[in-house]
Amino acid sequence: MGYDTERFVGYVNEGLLCSICRDVLEDALQAPCEHAFCATCIHGWLLHHSSCPEDRQALDGALLRPLYRYMKNDLNRLQLHCKNREYGCEMVCSLESIDRHERECEYSQILCSNPGCPVQTERRNLDGHLAVCDYRSRACPNGCGYTVLGAEDTQHNCVAELRTELELLRSEMICRVEEAKHEMESRLDSQRRHMVQKESILQNEIEELKSQMSRVLSDVRSLMAAERQHRQELEQAELEKREL
């Protein structure tokens, strides 16, 4: 939607009005046929139509372009009242600078910054409201360290609050201890499985070494028996030689 024509000072050229809402162009876009629209208006129109709302020529949203510079300059020079005129603001600005003024306008209606407070007040009166707001917060005057809302002053009980905090801390500590316990048990279980696996591997290696040693001993015994037989044969051959 565009800017309400009633806010403007003096005459507004027809070419600076949105062809859809008939208000003064806001975030203006222009079609190839040179008709101009508010960005929100034309995008909403093109969701259900594929033509220019003014002359019904085919229109693709990708063909929309910013206003010609001379039109944009004419638009920015228009003078209009602040939207907070009904609350007492008498400022008249150019369209180019109105947004900046309204962001800082002392007559703007803003919500109280205290969480939960429903009061809406003028910017210029905000500090006064915050000083008496029922939702303002402050440190407990009794020194318990808690932040107390103004509406809770009469209900605040330091002992009860500290007892609640202590219970919360105790519960949190128990949870952390349980988590640490579970994590330690998980680690020990993982290490235990690793040790068992390693022990099994070592046991297999020992059995393999025993098997290899057994084979070596068997080979040694065979060699020793062959040596004895060879020695006996040599001795027999020596005897036969002597007899000859």
Automatic annotation (TrEMBL):
One of its GO terms (biological process) is regulation of canonical NF-kappaB signal transduction. Residues 101-144 form the TRAF-type domain. Residues 18-56 form the RING-type domain. Residues 192-243 form a coiled coil. InterPro entries: Znf_RING, Znf_RING/FYVE/PHD, Znf_RING_CS, Znf_SIAH, Znf_TRAF. Keywords: Coiled coil, Ligase, Metal-binding, Zinc, Zinc-finger. GO terms for molecular function: ligase activity; zinc ion binding. The keyword Nucleotidyltransferase does not apply. A zinc finger (TRAF-type) spans 101-144. Transmembrane segments: none annotated. Residues 77-135 form the SIAH-type domain. PANTHER family: RECEPTOR-ASSOCIATED FACTOR, PUTATIVE-RELATED (PTHR10131:SF157), TNF RECEPTOR ASSOCIATED FACTOR (PTHR10131). This is RNF41 ligase. It comes from Nothocercus julius.
